[in-house]
Amino acid sequence: xxxxxxxxxxxxxxxxxxxxxxxxxxxxxxxxxxxxxxxxxxxxxxxxxxxxxxxxxxxxxxxxxxxxxxxxxxxxxxxxxxxxxxxxxxxxxxxxxxxxxxxxxxxxxxxxxxxxxxxxxxxxxxxxxxxxxxxxxxxxxxxxxxxxxxxxxxxxxxxxxxxxx
Length: 165
Fold this sequence. Notes:
Helix content: over 70%
Low-confidence stretches: 79-91
Shape: globular
Number of strands: 0
Mean pLDDT: 81
Structural class: mainly alpha
Number of helices: 8
Oligomer: single chain
């Protein structure tokens, strides 16, 4: 890569750093720290960057690589992600204000951490305000399947919340 491409890549990573951390956080297990998984994602983005043709949004491309890296890691380790609670330090990149909204968000991410891999991916993209079409493109599901799965995931999260109360 030339210097301009390198600077461009670093700029993209800086812009999407929080997104990458969010994806990695949801897939972090006992055997992989958040930062290790983040580095793996950035390394895979670096390797793939010269091949990015701009046929989709850069955010779609980043999500796809981040999700695939995290899911591949879990498959290689043959490990189910451990459900961990958010500590103030770990959640600083996700939550900036200290209020009741923060507590609700912590609970939401805790519940999301209990979902299966595909469900985690779908709800994360939904929370990032991706359209059904973008979610479809990233996950490889049809738009109709995305809509159906999202409704089921939301219902599952509601039930999980009620059972935790």
